[in-house]
């Protein structure tokens, strides 16, 4: 902290320096000036936190200095030390923020008390500024999400516009009075494969950067807002561009957006664009039109990126189904032959490549067909085996794209072959496991966990010695048979604890424990909390 003493009398400056315990107040730099002009030069260079000033000085007096401080260094605190007690001087000191007006000769106790009060004011105001700065940073982080949410809701429910009209007018200067709009949907499904690989774990950063690029184009003319861009929260992979002016030049505006995205990301994205519709009443219709134009674009046409909605265009989807190839794929999987899998996938892809048109709707239909068949086979072959969950496909469809962001049938073919080959490998492994007696024993435990199972009983059931089972089971599963049984029981108990109507004693009996206390002890040792604590934690 820096302090400045301004007085034309050196003995007064020396007295102030002597009387104040500067280090106790965190003041490590002490400056001196003998008049107001010298003080101004020092303050411009060092910007002190605390200023002591006389009122009567040559060149620039204390009154003028306080006015300068008030205008140029308002955060600094001023303590007046004067030999004059005229009311006009005191009033001036109060008006321009003086902490106190101390008369000469200086009272040491009053001086220290005033410095203490001034330092406390400085620290409190600094803390308040810091808090306000943090709040501003937080608001700047929250604000884009807030507006993304508002605009997303307005697209879904345009009738709620009046609720936000005043706020929107203040933030964006948008006042709908017979206004029309066009809406563009920008889909990240067609982002280049290279960009997907680079940013797959940082999608929020991708959205933030893309929206910034779009908004820079839409607001580059300060006198006229062309529109705005926002993340559409009702769909995970979309950005919406709302155009409110220059609607007849929308293609040029969106082409400029495409150029800027390509320059920034070295990738282009497809857009669907609505017709000209009333704003805000037809926002939902505008989104539906833009979405339809995007979904029904021909993905085989590589040059076109902007797709306008055309009401009179007849829609004729490709008449090609995966069902006629399903049985061949199933047999290839059962064969365990990668060559057979490649052959049947190649036959399917040959039919796909013969098409003149492929759109997103058709791709999604094929994906749902494939996913349906695959999940049916997984359920048939693996049942409730934990492996089955890992083998099922994701619920979200991704368009297979090349480095230019275009539909890549070759890439799709490779993905299918890899996926089906892995499924076939898992099936063969499962078949080998089924023939292994240790897995039979594990299955027996999973099916009879609620009974009083002993190692001797299992040995009798499988006609093997207890020692052989213990040794082989641990080699196969990495844990003792008793620990495996306990783990199965505890996992079943955790599911039963989700039912609030079952008592702990009932659950203990249902998973093979006659003694409730012993069950609770085993449960806590395994899970880390008691059954009751686990239940409460799941309910909260």
From TrEMBL:
Residues 2-119 form the Response regulatory domain. InterPro entries: CdaR_GGDEF (IPR041522), CheY-like_superfamily (IPR011006), Homeodomain-like_sf (IPR009057), HTH_AraC (IPR018060), HTH_AraC-typ_CS (IPR018062), Sig_transdc_resp-reg_receiver (IPR001789), Tscrpt_reg_AraC-type_HTH (IPR020449). Residues 439-537 form the HTH araC/xylS-type domain. The keyword Endoplasmic reticulum does not apply. Residues 108-142 form a coiled coil. Pfam families: GGDEF_2, HTH_18, Response_reg. SUPFAM superfamilies: CheY-like, Homeodomain-like. Keywords: Coiled coil, DNA-binding, Phosphoprotein, Transcription, Transcription regulation. The modification 4-aspartylphosphate is found at residue 54. It comes from the Bacteria. This is Response regulator. It comes from Paenibacillus filicis.
């Amino acid at each position: 902290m820096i302090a400045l003493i301004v007085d034309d009398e050196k003995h007064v400056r020396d007295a102030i320096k002597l009387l104040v315990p500067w280090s106790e107040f965190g003041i490590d730099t002490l400056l001196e000036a003998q008049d107001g002009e010298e003080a101004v030069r020092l303050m411009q260079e060092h910007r002190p936190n605390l200023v002591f000033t006389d009122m009567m000085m040559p060149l620039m007096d204390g009154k003028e200095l306080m006015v300068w401080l008030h205008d140029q260094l308002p955060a600094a605190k001023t303590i007046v030390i004067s030999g004059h007690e005229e009311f006009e001087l005191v009033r001036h000191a109060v008006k321009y923020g003086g902490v106190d007006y101390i008369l000469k000769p200086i009272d040491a106790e009053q001086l220290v008390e005033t410095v203490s009060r001034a330092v406390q004011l400085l620290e409190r105001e600094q803390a308040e500024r810091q808090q306000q700065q943090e709040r501003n940073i937080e608001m700047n982080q929250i604000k884009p999400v807030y507006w993304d949410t508002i605009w997303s809701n307005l697209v879904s429910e345009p009738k709620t516009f009046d609720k936000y009209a005043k706020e929107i007018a203040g933030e964006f200067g948008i006042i709908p009075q017979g206004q029309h709009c066009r809406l563009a949907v920008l889909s990240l499904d067609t982002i280049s494969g290279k960009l997907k690989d680079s940013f797959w774990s940082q999608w929020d950063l991708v959205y933030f950067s893309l929206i910034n690029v779009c908004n820079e184009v839409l607001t580059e003319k300060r006198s006229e807002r062309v529109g705005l861009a926002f993340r559409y929260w009702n769909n995970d992979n979309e950005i919406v561009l709302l155009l409110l002016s220059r609607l007849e030049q929308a293609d040029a505006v969106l082409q400029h957006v495409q150029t800027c995205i390509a320059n920034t990301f070295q990738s282009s994205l497809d857009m669907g664009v609505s017709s000209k519709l009333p704003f805000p009443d037809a926002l939902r219709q505008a989104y539906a039109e833009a979405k339809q134009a995007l979904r029904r674009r021909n993905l085989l046409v590589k040059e076109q990126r902007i797709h306008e909605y055309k009401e009179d265009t007849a829609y004729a989807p490709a008449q090609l189904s995966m069902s006629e190839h399903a049985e061949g794929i199933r047999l290839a999987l059962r064969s365990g032959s990668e060559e057979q899998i490649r052959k049947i996938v190649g036959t399917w892809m040959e039919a796909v490549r013969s098409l003149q048109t492929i759109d997103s709707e058709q791709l999604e239909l094929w994906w749902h067909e494939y996913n349906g068949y695959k999940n049916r086979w997984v359920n048939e072959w693996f049942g409730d085996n934990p492996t089955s969950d890992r083998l099922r496909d994701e619920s979200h469809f991704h368009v297979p794209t090349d480095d230019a962001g275009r539909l890549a049938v070759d890439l799709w073919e490779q993905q299918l072959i890899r996926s089906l080959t892995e499924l076939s490998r898992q099936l063969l492994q499962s078949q080998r496991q089924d023939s292994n007696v240790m897995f039979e024993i594990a299955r027996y435990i999973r099916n009879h966990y609620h009974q009083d199972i002993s190692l001797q009983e299992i040995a009798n059931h499988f006609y093997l010695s207890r020692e052989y089972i213990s040794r082989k089971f641990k080699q196969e599963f990495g844990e003792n048979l008793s620990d495996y049984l306990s783990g199965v029981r505890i996992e079943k108990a955790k599911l039963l604890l989700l039912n609030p109507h079952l008592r702990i004693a009932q659950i203990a009996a249902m998973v093979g424990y006659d003694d409730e206390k012993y069950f609770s002890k085993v449960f806590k040792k395994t899970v880390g909390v008691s059954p009751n604590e686990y239940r409460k934690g799941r309910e909260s």
